[in-house]
Write a structure and sequence with these properties.
The chain has 13 helices and 20 strands. The chain has 488 residues and is an alpha/beta fold. It folds into two domains: 18-261 and 464-485, Aldehyde Dehydrogenase, Chain A, domain 1; 265-453, Aldehyde Dehydrogenase, Chain A, domain 2, CATH 3.40.309.10. The strands form five sheets. Strands 14-15-16-13-12-17-18 form a seven-stranded mixed β-sheet, with helices on both faces. It has a six-stranded mixed β-sheet with strand order 9-8-7-10-11-19, sandwiched between helices. Helix 1 (52-69) crosses helix 7 (218-227), helix 2 runs antiparallel to helix 5 (166-178) and helix 3 runs antiparallel to helix 6. The longest helix has 22 residues, at 107-128. The mean pLDDT is 97. It binds NADP nicotinamide-adenine-dinucleotide phosphate. Residues 158-163, 185, 187-188, 218, 222, 237-239, 242, 245, 260-263, 294, 392, 420, 460 line the site of NADP nicotinamide-adenine-dinucleotide phosphate.
Length: 488
Amino acid sequence: MMTTIKEFTLIDLENVGLFVNGEWLTSLKEGTFSVENPSTKKIVAHVPKGGQKETEKAIAAAHDAFQTWSKLTAQERADYLLKLRDLMHDHKEELATIMSLEMGKAFLEAVGEVTYAASFLTWYAEEARRIYGETIPASSPNKRLFVVKQPVGVVAAITPWNFPVAMMTRKLGPALAAGCTGIVKPASQSPLTALAFAKLVEMSGIPNGVVNIVAGSTKEISDEIFNNPIVKKISFTGSTEVGKELVVQSANQLKKLSLELGGHAPFIVFEDADLEKAAEGALASKFRNAGQTCVCANRIYVHKNIKDEFAKIFVEKVKQLKMGDSLAKNVEIGPLVNEEGVIKVKAQVEDAVNKGAKILIGGTNGNLKNGYFFEPTVLDNVTNDMDIMKEETFGPVAPLTIFESDEEVIQEANNTKYGLAAYLYTADLKRAITVSEALNFGIIGLNDALPGVAQAPFGGMNESGYGREGGHQGIRDYLEEKYISLEL
Ligand code: NAP
C-alpha cells in the first residue's frame, strides 16, 4: 500500500519557493532546477535556482534577525524550538512522504528520520538553558574573572541528501538555541524536504530571517557563504572530498568550520557473539537507507570459526528485505538516490567478483527497471585488495571477510583513512572494552547497530572530519567564550 497523503500542505510542488527573510522566492531570473523521484525517474518538481544574490540577501536577513534573536532569553528560544518540534511531529507523515519522493528513503524509515530530527530540537531546547559560564579565581584580591558564552553570529549549514531533515535540525537546533541565526543550503537532490521544513519554521512564528533556506547553484551559494564576512561559522555534512575543498576555502577569513564527512565502518563479529543479534545488527547497520549512510557497516569481519553460520543467518534475513517504490509502506529498501549511485555499487560488486568474491544473494538491479534500484547483496570471500574494502560503498552491499585474532582484526579495522563509526559484537566484557578502546573511530556501536541519538556526540576522526554534533558538545561551536577581567 502506498502512503495515503494526496495533497501536500507544506509545499506546492507546482510553485516551489526558496525561503529568505520570511518570504517565498518563487520566480528567479536564473530559472529552475528539477528534482527527480529515484523510484520512478519522473520529475517531481522544479525548484527556483538560487545563487549569489539570494544567498547575500539571506545572510543580510540573518544578520538583521541576529540582533533580536540573540537577545531573547534562553527560555524564549527554547519555546520556539519546542513549537517547531511539535509541528514536525504533527506533520511527520507529510515530511516523510516528501523526503521519500525526492531521495528514495523507504517511507517508514523516513518517518523515523523525522522523529529523530525532531529529537535534536527537544535536546537543544533543553541545552539552551544550560549555556553556563565560569568564574575563575583571580590572582589579586581586587580582581574578578569571568568567562561568558555568546552566540558566534550568523552561521551556515550545508547539508547532504541522505538525511535531508535530520542533518538540518542537528545543525539548526544548537545554532538557534545558542542565539545564532543562519542560512541552510540543502543538497540539490533533496531541497523539497528542506523547504517543507521552512514552512514549519514559518508556522512556528520564529521571526523572519532567523532561518533562511537557499537551494540552487552550489558554487554561487557556497562562494557567497565563504566570502561574506558576516558568516562566522559553517557546518558541513557531506563527502570527504568536498570537505577538504571547504577547509581551503575557510582559510581566507579563518571561518569556524565543522565537518561531518564520509566513513568506512568496520563491523566485527567475534567468535563469542550472539550470532542472531549480530546478524540483526549487521542488517540494520548495512541496509538502512539502502546502505546510503555515513555510518553504514562497510566491511563485515567475522571470526573464521563462525563465518559460515553467521553468513547463513545473515543471508536468511537479507532474503526477507522487500525492495520497491520507496513510498510503499511495506518496502524496506528503496532505490539509490541516482544513477551514479547504482554505477558505483555495480562497479564495486564487479571488481570484487573479478577478484574472487562470491555473491551469496543479490548482485543485480532486480526486476525493477523504472528506478535506480540495486538488490540487497551479500558478498563472501572478500579480500583487502577489493575496492569495496577501501572505498565508501553508499549502497546495499555487505562484504564478508574473515579474521582469526583480536590483534589482526583491530589492525585491519583501523587500516582506513576514515574514522567515523565502528561496530563490534562480543559477549566477552574484557574484549568489548579493550577492542572499543583500540578502534580509532568517533562512534563505537558495542553490540549496538544504531548508536546515534540526540544526546550523544556524533562525529569522526581522521578524514571523517572534525567537530561533534549532538550531545552537550554539539552546541560548543556555535558559542564564543569571552573572558572578562574586572578590576574593582
Ligand atoms: P557532497 O557531494 O559532499 O554534498 C554535500 C553537500 O555539499 C550538498 O549540499 C552539496 O550540494 C554540497 N556541495 C557539493 N560540492 C560542493 C562544493 N564544492 N562546495 C560547497 N558545497 C558543495 O555529499 P553527498 O553525496 O550529498 O552526501 C554523501 C556524503 O555525505 C557521504 O560521503 C556521506 O558519508 C557523508 N555524510 C556524512 C555524515 C556525517 O555525519 N559524518 C552524515 C551524512 C552523510 P549539491 O547537492 O548541490 O551538490
